[in-house]
Specification:
The longest helix has 85 residues. By secondary structure, this protein is an alpha+beta fold. The chain is built from 10 helices and 6 strands. A hairpin with a 3-residue loop joins strand 2 and strand 3.
Length: 419
């Protein structure tokens, strides 16, 4: 219904415009027939009406078949002298109109120029007097007859170029708008992945520690009450830290205008001792070895290094059943290498839950996103991460992260065991 309503006024407007153009050309043809060959004025003869009707009849189809319309009006102009009429710019008005239409719709500029020039030359030849001398009036009339189609062709070509330019500008604007929308969606997707990665790392780490501490407390509840109290105290601290980190991360999703949460610097390798203490309190023996010259890291690389160590040790605590793990930091000129390896012995220092007929069996967990998240983090800062089983047993996570050029902060070659 909408298309029919819209097409009605457009169709009526087109018919009115075509009718006006055709009527104007018909009147101009009749005015051209008023001027006789002997330069006298008299009412247009019947031949002028015939010429006007024939040449104007093809004007309505000039947009659908511009070349045929131009050929028909040009041939009509060539027949003007044979009908005893004076060939003038007025009587060839239909040829001028079709020349404009053809230049406006021609496929190539060269073809349009050639066809319009050929039509103008044909009209010029037809306007040459076959007898008598050539006066200056005849010369000016011949020039006008040939020039009008050429001017119309140039005008049509200019209008065509302007329309093409406006269409190109509109297309570029639409393409730029689509590109902006696509870029905005890409950035939103990247931010969602980043926030999801942060949530996964901190929640998996803290919940794993809380689970290990709760297991210790449950196992030692009747045997060693003092140790149980200590484990419960550590459990409270762990869950408190988890809530603080979760609040800080989820605060990024607050709407504009909400009260701003206190900003806290992102964790880095400077907080590595506290991270390792949290795993030690859960029963995992962790040692640290450092080689090379330590250097300050960019914030993104520093956070990535911290999260990789955190997630790797979390996986050891959750899945490996190992009693000890080793964290190594290797500092080179252009990169830092981080490795986390567990012994794979399955002898956890954390007491295992009692097994028996009444024990609750822990269901198998579906695979998580720990390794995927670590690889994504390493790739995001231009690094590389690999993870695989060790031939001697256990699991090894190794990450190489790029370092910016700069001066070292510790003496070169320093290496040793961190406490």
């Amino acid at each position: 219904m909408t298309n029919t309503t819209d097409a009605g006024p457009r169709s009526r407007g087109t018919w009115w415009r075509e009718g006006a153009v055709t009527a104007t050309a018909f009147v101009l043809c009749l005015l051209g027939g008023v001027v006789q060959v002997d330069n006298t004025l008299s009412p247009p003869p019947v031949a002028a009406y015939v010429m006007a009707v024939v040449s104007c009849a093809v004007l309505p189809v000039r947009h659908r078949a511009p070349l045929a319309a131009l050929a028909a009006t040009t041939v009509s102009g060539l027949l003007v002298p044979a009908l005893g009429l004076l060939l003038s710019p007025l009587i060839v008005a239909p040829a001028v109109i079709t020349a404009y239409a053809y230049a406006l719709t021609a496929r190539t500029e060269r073809r349009a120029a050639g066809v319009v020039a050929l039509a103008a030359a044909a009209l010029l030849v037809a306007s040459v007097p076959l007898s008598g001398g050539l006066s200056w009036q005849d010369a000016s009339r011949m020039g006008s007859v040939a020039a009008f189609p050429l001017v119309a062709g140039v005008l049509g070509h200019s209008v065509r170029n302007r329309r093409a330019y406006l269409a190109a500008v509109e297309e570029r604007a639409q393409r730029a708008e689509l590109s902006r929308d696509s870029e905005a969606r890409r950035r939103v997707s990247e931010e969602r992945v980043r926030i999801a990665r942060e949530l996964h790392d901190l929640v998996a780490h803290q919940i794993t520690l809380a689970n290990a501490q709760a297991t210790v407390a449950a196992h030692l509840f009747d045997i060693r009450p003092e140790q149980t109290r200590k484990s419960l105290k550590e459990l409270v601290e762990t869950t408190g830290h988890a809530l603080d980190e979760l609040r800080a991360t989820v605060g990024l999703l607050r709407q504009t205008g909400d009260p701003a949460a206190p900003a806290e610097p992102a964790p880095g390798l400077s907080r590595l001792p506290a991270l390792l203490d949290s795993f030690r309190s859960a029963g995992l023996e962790v040692s640290v070895h450092q080689e090379g010259t330590a250097r300050p890291l960019p914030p993104g690389v520093d956070l990535t290094a911290y999260r990789i160590v955190q997630e790797a040790l979390t996986n050891v605590t959750k899945h490996a059943g190992a009693g000890s793990a080793r964290v190594s930091l290797g500092w080179n000129r252009d990169r830092v290498t981080i490795t986390v390896a567990d012994d794979g012995g399955g002898a956890r220092t954390t007491p295992a839950a009692p097994a028996g007929p009444g024990a609750t069996k822990v269901p198998d967990r579906p695979p998580g996103y720990g390794l995927i998240g670590m690889r994504e983090r390493a790739t995001a800062v231009g690094g590389h991460l690999s993870a695989d089983r060790r031939p001697e047993g256990g699991f090894l996570v190794s990450a190489r992260l790029p370092l910016p050029p700069g001066e070292a902060t510790t003496p070169d070659g320093e290496a040793g065991e961190a406490p």
